[in-house]
């Protein structure tokens, strides 16, 4: 018996629900990336997505630099006030995909197995 139910995966990380006593715990999502794990509810994942978008806006002045993806790391705010992450633009791109893919899959499953069921 698997102890997790996968939601989304890319080459940077994964997201999944934990299982407990043969039941999937869907009120929180485990995001694992860059040797870290965040245990988030849906609102916190949405807030994380907004932090990522804001980080793109703040660091947009480097858009024309050929080294922008490799030359430095910058702080990425998270929904948790005590935690900021040091990331490169490449890592930010992959993290954005992970978070957006997770949100999409959660919303799709909510629709398919909720409102969309006939």
Spatially, the strands of the biggest sheet line up as: 1-2-3-4
Overall mean confidence score, pLDDT: 89
Rounded to the nearest angstrom, the distance between the terminal CA atoms is 30 Å
Number of domains: 1
DSSP helical segment count: 2
Largest sheet, if any? 4 strands, antiparallel
How much is the radius of gyration in Å? 16 Å
Number of strands: 6
Shape: elongated
- The H/E string reads EEEEHEEH
- Assess the beta-strand content as a share of residues: 25-35%
Helical/strand content category? alpha+beta
Q: What helical percentage do the residues reach?
A: 25-40%
Task: Briefly say what this structure is.
The protein is α+β, with helices and mostly antiparallel strands and 118 residues long. Helix content is 37%, strand content 32%.
């Amino acid at each position: 018996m698997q102890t997790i139910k996968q939601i989304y995966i890319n080459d940077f990380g994964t997201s999944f629900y934990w299982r407990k006593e043969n039941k999937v715990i869907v009120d929180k999502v485990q995001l694992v990336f860059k040797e870290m794990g965040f245990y988030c509810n849906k609102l916190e994942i949405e807030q994380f997505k907004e932090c990522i978008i804001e980080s793109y806006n703040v660091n947009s002045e480097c858009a024309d630099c050929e080294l922008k993806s490799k030359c430095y790391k910058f702080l990425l705010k998270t929904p948790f006030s005590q935690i900021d992450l040091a990331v490169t633009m490449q890592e930010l791109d992959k993290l954005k995909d992970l978070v957006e893919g997770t949100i999409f899959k959660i919303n799709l499953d909510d629709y398919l197995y909720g409102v969309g069921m006939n």
